[in-house]
Each structure stands twice: as C-alpha cells, then as structure tokens.
Design brief:
Elements (H helix, E strand, L loop, with lengths): L16 H4 L3 E4 L3 E4 L3 H12 L5 E3 L7 H5 L31 H14 L8 E9 L4 E11 L6 E10 L1 E4 L6 E2 L13 E4 L13 E5 L3 H12 L3 E5 L6 E3 L1 E2 L2 E2 H9 L4 H16 L14 H8 L4 E3 L2 H7 L3 E3 L2 E5 L2 E4 L4 E3 L2 E4 L3 E2 L6 E2 L24 E3 L6 H40 L2
Helix pairs in contact: 2-10, 6-7
Protein name: Flavin-containing monooxygenase
Pfam families: FMO-like
Family: Belongs to the FMO family.
C-alpha cells in the first residue's frame, strides 16, 4: 500500500511510476520539518497557530534528544530563562532563573503538549532533494517501527513529497571526535561529553578532559566535585566571563549595552568587568583571544565560557590546566610541552557539528560545514521553499526569532496556494456542471 493523498497536485502524477512506487510515498500538504528539538518545535507551534499542516521527522525516539540523551546531569541553562523560552509559551513562574536540564526538558514536553505537536519518531532522513521540474522537495527516510514485541523493529523506506522543507537539526547534531595518535592503545575508558552523565563513577581517577569550552569546564568541575582529579586540555585561546555582573546575567548586561554602544566598545567593557571580577586568568593557562568575546562569537562561532565555579578549582590546583596533546600511550598521555601524565580515563569535550551536508542535496544555501551561508539575521530562508532554524549561533533566542519568521513566511505561501487551488477546483466544478 502507498499513502498518496487525493489532493496531490496533478504535476505529481507525472513522476516515473517505477521510482514513485518503489517505496511508501506520502504527499504532505504543508512543510516537512526535520528535527524535533527546540527549533523544530518552535516552527511547528507557529504553523499550528496559523492552521498550516506539517510533519516533523525525528531520528530519535523523543523530542529534544540532545537534551534528553546527550547532556550531563548537572547541566543548567547558561542564560536566564527569559532569553531561552520558545515563542508564545513562557517558562512556569516557579522555575528558577537558570532552569536545570530536567526542568528544561519538562518545559519542552509541555510545549509540545500545549500546541498538540506529535513528531514522527525513529525516522532518519537519508536524503532531501529539490525536484526543479515539479517544484517539490523529495525527502527520503528510513523509518524504524516496533514489531509485535518491544525488542523487534522493522525498517521501511518512506518518501515524503512536499512544497516546503524546514531544516531544524541545528548546529549540534553530531559529536566531533578528533583523531589522536595512540588513542587506540591507551587502554582506559574514553568517552565523548555527550556520553558523560556524572562524575560518580570517576571518584579517585585521574581524568583527562579534552576541551575548555563550557562543556569542558563543567565536566571538569563535576569531576572535581566527585573527588576525581581532572586535567583540562586547553589547546587554543578562550574567553572566560563571570556568569553574573552586579547581580545581573552577563548576557543580559551585554544585550543592554549593545542597544546603546557599538560591539567593540561592549567587548571592551565586558573584558574590563571580567578582569575586575575574575582577575588575570591567563596566568592559569587560559589565554584570551586577540578579539573580544562578542566579536569572537560572531566571527568564529566560539561561545564565551561563563564561569560557574571551575575557575576557583583551577586557582586551587584541583583542576589542572594542561596544553595540547601530542600522543597517547598505554595509560598515559604525552603533551606538546613534553609532559607525560598518568591518566585513567578521557572525556572528549570536543564539541559538535551540523550533519546537514550528509543528507541535504543542496549546495547554495548551506555551506560545507552545514550552516547557512548568509549570516544572522538573513540565514533562515533559501530558494525553492527551503528554510533553516537553529543555525544562528545565538542559542535559543536566535532559534526562536528564526522560527517566527519561517512559520509566518510558510503560512503566507500556504494560504495563497490553498486559495489558488480552491479557485482552480471551483472553476473545474463549474465547467463540469456546464457540460450537463
């Protein structure tokens, strides 16, 4: 059986039958949204509000799989909740200013329930290609459906045909795992930060944390709090800012200043405040970039580290800062400065990247690294009904702005096309009546 809606445009009937019926084929009378994270949910809510039908495809078995399956337990939002809420649905008033990971997941689940959003889970997009002849997107997926028992599962190929495609898989869909000489011979436990949950199982161990971003800093702090002995690899420069300034979030202060001052001046002020509050962090091995934190974020996409206690542990020596890695040995690591450290485990806090190039067959809107070529705020709309949400490098607030724009733009096009179809059907109906 093939699910092809009766309202499929006449042009679709001209597809090659062999190709069309080789898999289960579904016409979507609206957009296909790829990804059921915060970005995809925000677009879906906007479309629901305007009466536009859609389908959300999600490869995992839940919404916000990055938050649910690939984050550590101690994680909290780094920004105040008012900067992280999705459109038309504020956080509960009793939530703290910086909600925990579990509170944020609860919020997202409430969001999906409130807007009656039901993604299609366990459906991995293999390819999405624009058919210029028919002006339609063809999205091919592998769908895993549970069999009669909870263990068995069957795979089937599905092809969705639609006018609009929303890429909402985000900047952090795949983990980055660098290659290190000798890592295979190391012999100890090696994991990416997405697999790390808590330092409970590392008590008494010497752990090498590779990376000094927010994840690297927080994992190191968590390990320290669980009586492990972390050494944090700092391979490049990093901006470390206080989480709060004069009782206000540093982000909130930056947003307020940017309304009145140029970016370079705001950067200067932030660096002065950081020096006054945190002191000279460079003497602990945390070298600052040559450009300010906001400019560095805009140009290189590197988010400043907001200190939540790791710096104090670094000062006290409980978290050891070490330079880059030369190679791994059996139970050891050799650093670029010649030091050899005895270590028991390795946590790779080496970040994430977009997976868009692996499945989207398009090379104009997205660059090779899987992010839109046009910078914020113009990176949400491409050609032929292609849209992107969650690639702004501006967190949840940037994703929300994109989602509002995308939902509004699709709704406008959908309503115009629906109106035109009704006119066409009415005209055909009148012609049919005139023949009798």
């Amino acid at each position: 059986m093939h699910d092809i809606c009766l309202n499929m445009p006449p042009m679709v009937q001209n597809f090659d039958p062999e190709d069309l019926f080789s898999r289960r084929c579904i016409w979507v009378n609206g957009p296909v949204i790829v990804g059921a994270g915060p970005s995809g949910l925000a677009v879906a809510a906007g479309l629901k509000d305007q009466g536009v039908p859609f389908i959300i495809l999600e490869r995992a078995n839940c919404i916000a799989s990055l938050w649910q399956n690939r984050t550590y337990d101690r994680l909290k939002l780094h920004l105040p909740k008012q900067f992280c809420q999705l459109p038309n649905f504020p956080f509960p008033e009793d939530f703290p200013e910086y909600p925990t990971k579990f509170q944020f997941i609860s919020y997202l689940e409430s969001y999906a329930t409130h807007f009656n959003i039901a993604p299609q889970f366990n459906e991995t997009v293999q390819s999405a290609k624009y058919d210029e002849t028919f002006g339609l997107w063809r999205v091919k997926t592998i769908s895993r459906r549970k069999g009669p028992s909870s263990v068995s599962a069957a795979e089937c190929e599905v092809e969705y045909i639609c006018r609009w495609l929303v890429v909402a898989t985000g900047e952090n869909s795949e983990k980055v795992v660098p290659e290190f000489e000798g890592l295979g011979e190391f012999g100890g436990r090696v994991m990416h930060a997405c697999e790390y949950k808590s330092g409970e199982g590392f008590a008494g161990q010497k752990v090498l944390v590779v990376g000094c971003g927010n994840s690297g800093m927080e994992v190191s702090l968590d390990l320290c709090n669980h009586n492990a002995k972390p050494s944090m690899v700092v391979r490049s420069s990093v901006h470390v800012l206080p989480k709060e300034v004069f009782g206000k979030s540093t982000f909130e202060v930056a947003v307020m200043l940017m309304k009145r001052l140029p970016l370079w001046m705001v950067d200067k002020i932030l660096l002065i405040l950081a020096r006054l509050i945190l002191g000279n962090v460079e003497k602990y091995g945390l070298k600052r970039p040559s450009v300010g934190p906001l400019e560095f974020k805009h140009t290189a996409g590197k988010t400043p580290v907001l200190d939540i206690g790791a710096l104090q542990k670094i000062r006290s020596g409980k978290i050891k800062v070490v330079p880059g890695i030369r190679r791994f040995l059996q139970g050891k690591v050799e650093l670029v400065d010649g030091q050899v450290l005895q270590i028991d485990s390795v946590v790779l806090a080496t970040g994430y990247h977009s997976n868009v190039p692996s499945w989207l067959k398009e090379n104009e809107f997205f660059s090779n690294d899987g992010t839109p070529r046009n910078p914020f705020p113009n990176g949400w709309k491409g050609k032929g009904g292609l849209y992107a949400v969650g690639f702004t490098r501006r967190g949840l607030s940037g994703a929300s702005l994109d989602a509002i724009n995308v939902a509004h733009d699709i709704a406008k096009s959908w309503k115009e096309e629906t109106k035109q179809k009704r006119k066409t059907v009415a005209a055909r109906h009148r012609r049919c009546i005139s023949h009798f």
